[in-house]
Design goal:
Blueprint: E1 3-6, E2 16-19, E3 31-33, E4 42-44, H1 53-61, H2 63-86, H3 107-118, E5 123-127, H4 133-144, E6 150-153, H5 173-177, E7 184-190, H6 203-216, E8 221-225, E9 244-248, E10 262-266, H7 268-278, H8 294-325, E11 329-331, E12 343-346, H9 350-362, E13 384-387, E14 400-404, E15 410-414, H10 423-454
Parallel strand pairs: 6-7, 7-8, 8-9
Antiparallel strand pairs: 1-2, 3-4, 5-10, 9-10, 11-12, 12-15, 13-14, 14-15
The structure holds pyridoxal-5'-phosphate (PLP).
């Protein structure tokens, strides 16, 4: 028997599929059966067509950029595979442990070893006990710093949640050449833009900054906040001289499936010092249990991470293309090589920022029925709005966006499909979301234009 599926939507070409299977194979589909026909013909009614020509056009025009991302994914995946093989990762490493974790069957060591090799570091510690990127970064910084020590924030103010830890600085090459003092103990380089309207740093630029720093003060230790940067390039900061890097497993390296955790990697002694901050002096890296299935998910997430990051980069290229086409300022710019997975769009008003986040939330698979509300969040100075209809609470490796409610009302998108399992699905979800966003922003602009016209003003997108 043949099943004929056809879309009832007329705006776009309707695919007609002939499948050699029975209707019962699709119990959820809305079907109409032409019973008089000798061969049962069933049509599937799609409620809505997610693509619009504007987005389709953008996807087609990005072909060569997407190919370049595929090449990046292939290279990074090969590095990860090699590291897994060298660490002799086996299924016995996936079982959980309890209590002190003394009976842990070697998974911790294998994961640390593989992670260190992937990132070009001497040593690494990947643990569920790091409860966020901020926590891992703080442990790394406290490995270097004691009260009263001087820290130089090379790329400007660090991410909002780290503001209380550090004073301001600035990535200005001339200024950096004279910025180091003999007493500067540590330089913090934030790879990704955070909530600032700046370009994220390439690993080459980070290497150049490290050389300038060490030339002035060879004792100054360099710590890189690697959040959102992992796997966006072929190299990582330890390969260009960073003493330590730190980040979160619910971002890039967790491959969208790690439920918690973070990492610190770099020189052996400093990783041990960071581990002592995480646990307690003397306990180091050899204890701490990881119950349930988490070890397996860490290994599997890390293995998938290059591919998931590739999807996110494609999503960010697509968002930039479409939103810039609508007249919004985007950072990074269209078709510019990526150094992180974050795509910022300047929306120019509080209402547009709220509408954008609401549209992302509505397009999400989890809690699509809720409305994100801006509010005070621990660690953040300004009011912030988060749209994260994600499987992992707060995961910005899935399709999410957020932004502080302050000028220039920029939204920071991490544009990966929430299911995150295949290239095709990633793009579809992103396209669907973009379509909805375009509609929402358009409606909002019209409402705003009407309101402002009444007062003799014409509003423009930026
Ligand atoms: C560049 C950067 N560093 C650090 C953090 C803090 O990470 P977490 O939210 O996991 O604490 C963020 C959060 O978005 C970030 O963008």
């Amino acid at each position: 028997m043949f099943l004929v599926l056809s879309s009832t939507t007329s705006a776009y070409p309707t695919p007609t599929l002939s499948l050699p299977c029975a209707a019962v194979a699709y119990p959820g589909a809305t079907v109409s059966v032409r019973s008089k026909s000798r061969v049962s013909a069933v049509s599937l009614h799609l409620d809505e067509q997610p693509f619009v020509p504007e987005v389709e056009k953008a996807v087609d025009s990005l072909y060569s950029e997407f190919r370049a991302v595929d090449n990046l994914v292939a290279r990074n995946s090969a590095r990860v595979l090699k590291a897994f093989q060298n660490a002799r990762v086996g299924s016995h490493h996936f079982s959980g442990s309890t209590g002190y974790g003394h009976e842990e069957p070697g998974g911790r060591e294998a994961l640390d070893q593989a992670f260190a090799e992937i990132f070009g570091a001497e040593s690494a510690i990947v643990r569920a006990q790091f409860f966020s990127g901020t926590h891992a970064i703080t442990c790394a910084l406290f490995a270097f710093l004691r009260p009263g020590d001087e820290l130089l924030a090379v790329a400007g103010a660090p991410y909002d949640t780290l503001e209380e830890l550090a004073e301001d600085g600035g990535l200005d090459w001339d200024a950096l050449r004279v910025a180091l003092k003999p007493q500067t103990k540590c330089a913090l380089i934030q790879r990704s833009c955070g909530y600032s309207w700046r370009r994220s740093l390439s690993v080459d630029e980070i290497g150049r900054a490290i050389k300038i720093i060490k030339l002035q003060n060879p004792n100054c230790l360099v710590m890189v906040d690697n959040c959102y940067g992992e796997f966006t390039e072929r190299i990582e900061p330890p390969m260009v001289g960073a003493d330590l890097i730190a980040g979160s497993f619910i971002k890039n390296p967790g491959g969208t499936i790690a439920p918690c955790g973070g990492y610190v990697a770099g020189s052996k002694n400093w990783v041990a010092a960071a581990a002592a901050r995480l646990s307690a002096p003397g306990l180091g890296v050899d204890c701490g249990s990881t119950p349930g299935d988490i070890m397996r998910i860490f290994f599997q997430g890390l293995f998938l991470a290059p591919q998931m990051v590739g999807e996110a980069i494609k999503g960010s290229l697509l968002i930039a293309e479409v939103m810039a086409g609508r007249g919004y300022k985007v950072q990074p710019g269209c078709r510019v090589p990526r150094h992180d997975v974050v795509q910022a769009v300047q929306l120019g008003s509080r209402e547009r920022l709220l509408a954008f986040c609401e549209a992302v939330q509505r397009s999400s698979p989890v809690s699509s029925f809720t409305k994100p509300i801006a509010g005070a969040t621990p660690g953040y100075a300004s009011e912030v709005i988060f749209a994260d209809g994600t499987f992992i609470d707060g995961s910005t490796s899935e399709l999410s966006c957020d932004g502080p409610l302050r000028e220039p009302f920029a939204v920071y998108c991490q544009p990966l499909d929430s299911m995150g399992t295949s290239s095709r699905r990633g793009l579809n979800s992103c396209r669907q979301c973009l379509w909805k966003l375009s509609v929402d922003i358009e409606k909002l602009t019209m409402v705003k234009n009407l309101a402002e016209n009444r007062h003799g003003n014409i509003a423009s997108p930026d």
